[in-house]
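User: Predict the structure for this protein chain, please.
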Amino acid sequence: MTLLDLWLSRSLPMCLLIQSLILMALCFPSASMCPKGCICQRADLYPHGLNITCSQSRLKEIPPDLPVDTVVLRLDHNHIGAVPDRAFHGLKLLRELNLSYNAVETLGEGAFSGVEATLQVLDLSHNRITSVHKDAFTRLKARVIVDDNPWHCDCALQQALGGMAHNHEAAARVLCWSSELRNQEGRPFLAVDADLCNLAKRTTDYAMLVTMFCWFAMVISYVVYYVRQNQEDARRHLEYLKSLPSKPKKPDEADDISTVV
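Assistant: Here is the predicted structure, written as structure tokens:
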């Protein structure tokens, strides 16, 4: 056996091992990349992206430092109570986001900042969402699912749903649990004909008018009280002056009068 044959016999297994490790690294994401309590797999439809499943992991917040190549992110059936602004910023490949069956109560303007252009499906059903920022869904191109949330139907929600022209079906499924108007509970939000933003403005105007009227009435009452109090003080002073005894004449004045007589 020559030296070349000996070198090849020893190097070949090492090369095969390195090749296997490279293939494993490409096919399976590193454990350090995967959030705790989640399962990370290569996406079938997107070979260069990750499917991250964190369902039923008792999460109370969205995991930080999510892999940038995340394509599908399932966070359903947890205890997540908020979606911070820019929580998914940097996930340039994100196509599907499932936040259903959590405890989210409100959504800010930047909750989905950074994924507006790529996100295709956003599931927010079965949460505790009562209100959203008027621009929370404006730039989203995704199909948004918002069923089974205790919505408070107000101006902000009307503006938010107004920006979901491509999500008319989702907007039609929003039911009012509470409302700025009476007798709207349990009705579809799109059945509300009133302009809730003008209603809020009118309510504010009425409140300002009532406040100004009360302030004016208070000033008038104070002026009337002040005038009456001064009149009463003047009357008492006059009565006091009248009650004083007249000034007695001096003796010199009496003698002068007798001499003249």
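Helices lie at 3-27, 155-162, 168-172, 196-243, 251-260.
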